[in-house]
Structure prediction request, 381 residues.
Amino acid sequence: MLLLSSFIYTAGILACLLILVILFRSRKKGRSQFILLAIFSFLFFVPLTAYAELHQLTVLQAIAFLFADSIGFALGPLLYLYIKSLYQEEAFSLRKFWIHLLPLIFYLLLISFPRWLDIWIPDAFPQYVRLIDKFEPILQFQAFYLIGYCIASLRLLSFYKKLLKENFSELQAKELLWVRYLLIGLILTLNINLAFALFSYLYGPFSFNPNFFTDTALILLIFYLGYYGSTQSRVLLPAYVYEEKRREVEEIPGNKSHHLSNAPEEEIEGLTLALENALKEDKLFLKEDLSLGELAEHIGTTDKKLSALLNQVLKLNFFELINEHRVEEVKVKMQDPNFTHYTLLAIAFESGFKSKTSFNRIFKQKTGLSPSAYKKELDNQ
Prediction:
């Protein structure tokens, strides 16, 4: 067990160091990469502390303790900010973000630093440190804090997915499912850690080290974040969409203002006709990465006006609109003799779909049947 633990902790240390080197040497350092640097700088001390405790390396443990002890208050806000940096151009504002770091600052000053100092200077604050140890279960509050940020981050991802559907026709590479899985994995790991802590508090210490399981899970998540995070490019959304969403939340009931609010009826009718022609005649939906901006440029309007036309006037969603036309195109090609030698996936690609997964999911949502089941029904008619 000692050998296995040592191997896992060493792997975690080396993985963090390698990822930090990759991020430091990257030529294109955007906001998201700088935030990842901060995240992995904190994460590095988790396996380092575990390794020091395992081998009773007191000095190394003392050096790493200060950062590892407070990681729950740092990791949550940093992950939340990292997600924002992938989608928003102006994601980082220290003036707005510092309030998220207040719990970290207070915890460092009131809890971590006195305990860290006690390692180097025994009995420096004997009564205060004993008081902290007496209320040790309260220290688990940072786990709840991190879980709260993970849930907030999941909600933020759902918000961005809604905005993506209003601007893009293909989401597979943009909705960042790996981030969602990372957050869910982190929540599960934290809940296991809390369960161990509660059991230990109620029934006494375990005969084994329960931290090994949660540390191992966290190290696996480090590998996962390092693999995807170091290669993840940004998925920037138009800045105006955030302004519109904020206006929707803040607007007075009944005051539905948008970019076509004061437009004459003739302009709205003209835009609607141009949209229909672009999809039915020009078949712009066949472009697999079609965006709202490209469609707007094609019909001679702005992305803001086209967004208002779809969302506010026609009550349509760009993603659903484009993929509905793609499904209809697939259904037409399934009955076209010219496509009898095509596979269903080939027909899907010819109709604008980019991946098998999204094609199967969207087709079933629109028709209630899988593509193969739908094709079989056609053949039996």
